[in-house]
Amino acid sequence: MTAAMPPGTRTGDRPPRHRAPRHRCRRVLLPALALGLGTLALAGTAQAAGGCAGKPTRVEQMICTDPDVSALDGELKALFDRIEDETNGIDGETGQVSDPFGADHARWREQVRDACRDTACLKRVYTARIAEVRRTWSQALSDAPPSQQPASSRHPGSRHYVNVRFGFSVDVPGDLVAEPPPDNGDGQAYHSADGSLHLTVSGLIDAAEEGLKSFVASDQKACLRQPPEYLVRKPDWIVFSCTTATGLLYQKTLLQGGRGGAFISLRIRYPASEQARWNAAVAMASKSLRLTGASDPK
């Protein structure tokens, strides 16, 4: 990972890249067993009391016959469905299946849940798993397209930045130090007082008409793991975060105006050892980044 680049270093019209062939992406429909919740399709106390259909395993029998555990199972299933909808799919260029959460959840089912011998154990592991999923995969549970984001209500202690040239805004922690803005007005860079966190938000014209995915792919090359640990792709925005050679990188890029329009990118870099310290700052900036609808990037 290189040091955070001030917005001025990625401005203007970049030299055209070779455009990779475009392929349509399609969703992967997972079988029910991928849920890590067995073959249960139960919800609520009424069905829990009625027993399991088919030939449930020992653990599934305990789940579906205990109302409390069945309710926890239903809550976890709802979280799973939401996260899978955001993170699971097929890479349109490589054809490889990308299902980071499904693989993680399968490991939990086999190594943790299925090791339980009684319902007390199941209640403990389900409660812990739900808390872990909400914490670790919060981006998939909260990210929404810019068009669906409400106007920022200003986070306490935050600084609101508005970019007139590219028509976007974002909230950043108020204690970050603002660096001198670039002359072309494409964005703004910030860093923490101790220099551990670097945050840049900027716009760039898609002069080469390379498209959103190709643009973001160049930044993903810094990730040690491919695909990145967290990756969400939508037609008009992409979010990813990963471990790089020198720390963590979080990036959210919005597409403004379709192919040939502009890219609005938020990049945050910080040491892996300080993830807990900066989690709130990353969430604030990511959730508040939105298009304002007025721009003049030319």
Automatic annotation (TrEMBL):
Biased composition, class Low complexity, residue ranges: 1-10, 138-153
Keywords from the named record: Signal
Signal peptide range: 1-48
Stretches the record annotates as Disordered: 1-23, 138-158
Listed name of the protein: Lysozyme inhibitor LprI N-terminal domain-containing protein
